[in-house]
């Protein structure tokens, strides 16, 4: 069980001149069910990355609470908005380092690297890879951990369509294989519809939930562009009722 | 590497040639001996065993004070770089010691602790610690927050974080501190020996100075300079290259 409830009384960053900036979040609440796949949409600069940072526990400077339904912190993978690899460690070391030490860890890391299509690059240093390849290493690192809670911040930008489609499938397989709760930030509403079973659209500031949409599509229907477009109309706010989608 | 060694050899040969010409032109070999006279002096001190004994004694002092200064200076610098409070409290002391003349520190150490070995090593180390601290403070202050957050999220723990995240970021700063440190330490060690030790290169130089024996002075200077250069080429540079192999 890895559902969670985020309650933010207030989150504001200190301003440049010492005072406080207007708050990014005020009396904000988001509930995420166990094994849900929630996509988070919202304009740039609203605070989506900040929200993931607070959930991941790297940003503790806010009032509010974080409740995990099983009472302890789950095993978290966080695929950051930038790859955040260790430039002085090889691809293989980067993926293997978060894993518990053991004979098994290198094997798992190799498998994860092959899964993202980078077999053969294990011994390369990250700065010699293209940005898209670095992103895929970061994904391999996040997936290899076998997380209970998977946080992803625009993980598929700067990738080509074929790779993105492959990684979407990989993500689906990963989630199907193990109970995983996913929170996925993206600017691409089509991608959100294709992947998520719930889409939360934020507006602000301060950020509030403008629309909270359950995606009523089966895995097969998600491959049909027409179906995707119909739900997308709802997401971007062109249609107001679920009936229009289902009808 | 090979061509760089070649260029160094040519450059050194030119230096020796110019020196030789000036010495011949000047004519007073007691004040400015020719290269062969210096080599003669080198052979004489080497045969008596004095050269190796004194080089060894001095090298041991260099090593001890260098390690002491690097350890304490790094710890202090990292503390100052990570904690703003510590930097506000202790930072001004570092600046004070940075600007204190080496001679003052040496004399005070000898006056307060006596003409003993530990006072000599401490005097050299104290001279060097502020430099190391300032360099490492810079390094610690520029540590990447992004990577620290990554390590925290993925549960690296303190040991893995230190080894794979923090120390590699500090490596260039260690190298810079070590390089400038070696140059500074061995110069100060000679002064310390001259002022208060009964052996070592510094002591021998003083004896030679009293006898106006310029050839022996130069012989010691070159022997020791050669060793320091060998340490730089044989240890520091290869280590730096290995530590930088990931760069594009
Ligand atoms: N460390 C920080 N210090 C000060 N302000 C910050 C800091 N981090 C983020 N902010 C501010 O908080 C706001 C939200 O930033 P955040 O990165 O969460 O946006 P975002 O929704 O992820 O945007 P994008 O879609 O462009 O990634 C921005 O206005 C940003 O300037
Ligand atoms: Mg962001």
From TrEMBL, chain B:
Give all residue intervals belonging to the ABC transmembrane type-1 domain: 55-237
Q: Which Gene3D superfamilies match?
A: MetI-like
Q: Which GO terms describe its cellular component?
A: plasma membrane
Under PANTHER family, the record lists: ALIPHATIC SULFONATES TRANSPORT PERMEASE PROTEIN SSUC-RELATED, ALKANE SULFONATE ABC TRANSPORTER-RELATED, MEMBRANE SUBUNIT
Q: Where are the transmembrane segments?
A: 6-25, 62-81, 93-113, 208-231
Q: Which UniProt keywords apply?
A: Cell membrane, Membrane, Transmembrane, Transmembrane helix, Transport
- Note one Pfam family from the annotation: BPD_transp_1
Q: Which organism is it from?
A: Hansschlegelia quercus
The family database entries (PROSITE patterns) matched by this protein are listed as: ABC_TM1 (PS50928)
| Subcellular localization, as worded in the UniProt entry | Cell membrane
Q: Which GO terms describe its biological process?
A: transmembrane transport
The reply on keyword Transport is yes
Protein name (database record): ABC transporter permease
Topological category with respect to the lipid bilayer: Multi-pass membrane protein
Question: What family does the entry list?
Answer: Belongs to the binding-protein-dependent transport system permease family.
Q: Which domain of life is it from?
A: Bacteria
The record's principal subcellular location, in a coarse class, is membrane
